[in-house]
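Look over both lines:
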Amino acid sequence: MKLSGYDQIIITGRADTLLYCLITNSDVRFVDCPELAGTSLIQTTKTIRQGHKDYAIQVAAIGQAGENQVHFAAIVSSGNRVNGRIGMGAVMGSKNLKALAVRGSRSLELAESLAFLEETKKIESAILQHNEYPKRYALGTTMLMTDLNDIGILPTKHFKEGVCTYVDEISGQKLVMQVKGLDIICGDPRGIKAYGLTYAIASRGGDHLRAEPFFELTNRKDEARERFGTEKAANRLAEEGKAALVTYSEKISLLTDALTMCKNIGLCMDILNLENASALLKAGTGIDYKPEYLYKTLGDAINRDYELNTKFGIKKEDNTLPERFQTEPLTRGPTEGPTVDIQRMFNEYYKLHNWE
């Protein structure tokens, strides 16, 4: 989309008939597409490209679930990148919008191209030299199956146990394990307390990507004491220091989104920070983004997010975890025993944001 000359497109209202939005260098227009009703994501992408005789068109489309406004319907980009979890496909379906089709060929201008290149090389070097890079490169998110099992937090038997005895045989509930209507991921908060706080406070529900506080799994005690006031911030089973960790991590998480950087790299590997992001932005835009300005801007965005949720009816007590995590300990494995005092962590988090 950037190559077509647009940074952002906001679509309001609802069409009377099914259509898609075509975005090019010259204009933005809506195209009627009754023939695409009920077609799959792959077929929709193929039909749009064939219709314009251009296979370089990038398509973000919905399928039948989105058209029928299924609450967990996804938007899929060019047939392989899924924007799921919170039902954005249903939002497109409610607008009678089958797809966004983008074709841009403009060049991008950088304020300081050589400086920008130098900053990207530094970040690339930090990525390639990181000790977790080979595993994350080879396995991606699927590495979590064995990693979570090894520390006893792989949800087993509907979160009753943290160890799956047959984990090597698989590749990838009585109580609904969700927060604000969104299921949490495959990581039991009884063994990763900062993640538990993240599930609870995330504005869109049980979402680990709101903060992705991977630092608590690093055991870097001296650094934890320096950065977050206590070495326990680097102890996955401790609750002390987790409010400070999440308050920091949610800002860097938002920053990785703004820079379209993978959180596995920017946040989990602790590559991105306010300083190198400032340098990168200055080199790319010519604007002197100081770390202090980024910190305030990110904080303001998080505050507005909270205020918006409050207007939508989310209450303070909704920022919690399912009761099982608070009252029932795991019975096997390395995380046997603890529960989550989510109220304690949330109160500290709330106070750090001055939301009283």
Notes: The longest helix spans residues 291-311. Residues 2-103 form a domain with the Aldehyde Ferredoxin Oxidoreductase;  A, domain 1 fold (CATH 3.60.9.10). The chain has two domains: 2-103, 113-352.
